[in-house]
Automatic annotation (TrEMBL):
Keywords: Lyase, Metal-binding, Zinc. Reversible hydration of carbon dioxide. It comes from the Eukaryota. Residues 29-288 form the Alpha-carbonic anhydrase domain. One of its GO terms (molecular function) is carbonate dehydratase activity. GO terms for cellular component: plasma membrane. Its cofactor is Zn(2+). Its EC number is 4.2.1.1. It catalyses: hydrogencarbonate + H(+) = CO2 + H2O. This is Carbonic anhydrase.
Length: 315
C-alpha cells in the first residue's frame, strides 16, 4: 500500500509539473495552430476556430486565406505587372523562430520596394515567411479549386510612409502581400537549402540570427509579373488585420520531397497554416494571361543566401 501511495504521489508530481509546463507554454504563446495542441484541452481556446474570441478581427468579413475558384474569378486586364525597386541594394536580414513559423525580417529602413500591380502607392519589403504541412501533408494557406499545395511563401510589404506593420494595419491597403505556391519536384530547389539550414540553427522560440547581404542581381522583369490573382483580405495570423492587398501568383514554385522533410522536422512547427476563410461577397480578380513569375523566388532566396554566406552561417 505504501508503494502504491508513493507511486500516486509521484504521478501527481508529474501531472502537476506537466500542468505548470503547459501554463508556461500558453503564457508565452497567445495562440496556436490546430497541430500545436501540447496541453490537451487547455489549448483549444487558442486554435484557429477560436482566434476571434481573443482577436475580434479574426472573425471579420475580409479574412484570409481563401479558396480561389478559378471558374468564378473576374478577369481584369487592367491589372499591370509589378516593378521591384532597389533589389540590388544591401539588406539586413534577421531569421527568427516565432514558435509558429520561421520569419525573415528585412531591415526597417530597407530600400527594397514594390510598386505597380495596381497597388495604391509604393510599398517597402518588411519580411518574408513560409507556411507548410507535415509528414507528407500539404500546408499552403491558399487553395486553388480546393487543392492545397505543399508550401506557400509570403513576402510582406508595408505601404509608404508607414514605418511598421502596426501602423500599416490601420489602412485597408496598408499591406501588400505576395504569395507563391509550391509544387513538389524530383529535384531540389537550390535556393531553399540556405533557408532550411538557417531554420535548423534557430530551434528555440524567440531565437534569431542576423545577416547582411551584399548587392544582389535583380532577376525578375516586368514581363514576368503578369499572371496573378488579386483580392482584399487580412493577415493570416492573429490579430488578422484586414489591411492586405493579396497577390497570389499563378506560377508555382518547386520544392523536393527531401527539402520538405527538412521543414517538417521542426516540431511543433508543422501544419502551420490557417484554414481557408469564407469569401463573404468579395471578388477575386485575375490579371490578363501572360508569362508567370519564375525568377522572383531566385531573387529573394539569392538575397537571403548571400546574407547567410557573408556571416558564416552556411558551412
Amino acid at each position: 500500500m505504501k508503494g502504491d501511495q508513493s507511486a500516486k504521489e509521484s504521478n501527481g508530481e508529474i501531472d502537476t509539473a506537466l500542468q505548470l509546463k503547459c501554463r508556461s507554454l500558453l503564457s508565452a504563446l497567445l495562440w496556436c495552430y490546430q497541430s500545436q495542441y501540447s496541453c490537451d484541452d487547455t489549448c483549444r481556446g487558442e486554435n484557429p476556430s477560436h482566434w476571434a474570441a481573443q482577436f475580434p478581427s479574426c472573425g471579420g468579413l475580409r479574412q484570409s486565406p481563401i479558396n480561389i475558384v478559378t471558374s468564378k474569378v473576374h478577369i481584369n486586364s487592367a491589372l499591370p505587372p509589378f516593378d521591384f525597386i532597389g533589389h540590388t541594394n544591401a539588406i539586413n536580414v534577421t531569421v527568427e523562430n516565432l514558435g509558429h513559423s520561421g520569419r525573415r525580417d528585412l531591415d526597417g529602413v530597407s530600400s527594397v520596394r514594390l510598386t505597380g500591380g495596381a497597388l495604391p502607392g509604393h510599398y517597402r519589403a518588411a519580411q518574408f515567411h513560409f507556411h507548410w504541412g507535415g509528414n507528407g501533408r500539404p500546408g499552403s494557406e491558399h487553395t486553388i479549386d480546393g487543392e492545397r499545395f505543399p508550401m506557400e511563401l509570403h513576402i510582406v510589404h508595408i505601404k509608404e510612409p508607414y514605418g511598421s506593420l502596426a501602423e500599416a494595419e490601420h489602412d485597408m491597403a496598408g499591406i501588400a502581400l505576395l504569395a507563391f505556391l509550391f509544387e513538389e519536384s524530383a529535384d531540389d530547389h537550390p535556393h531553399l537549402d540556405p533557408i532550411i539550414s538557417a531554420l535548423g540553427r534557430v530551434q528555440n522560440n524567440g531565437t534569431g540570427l542576423d545577416g547582411w547581404t551584399p548587392q544582389a542581381e535583380v532577376i525578375p522583369a516586368s514581363k514576368d509579373l503578369h499572371s496573378y490573382y488579386r483580392y482584399v483580405g487580412s493577415m493570416t495570423t492573429p490579430g488578422c488585420e484586414q489591411a492586405v492587398a493579396w497577390t497570389v501568383f499563378h506560377k508555382t514554385l518547386t520544392i523536393s520531397s527531401r527539402q520538405q522533410c527538412k521543414f517538417w522536422t521542426g516540431q511543433p512547427m508543422t501544419d502551420i497554416f490557417r484554414p481557408t476563410q469564407p469569401l463573404d461577397g468579395r471578388v477575386v480578380y485575375c490579371s490578363k494571361a501572360g508569362p508567370a513569375l519564375t525568377s522572383a523566388l531566385h531573387l529573394w532566396f539569392g538575397v537571403f543566401s548571400a546574407a547567410l554566406g557573408t556571416t558564416g552561417l552556411i558551412p
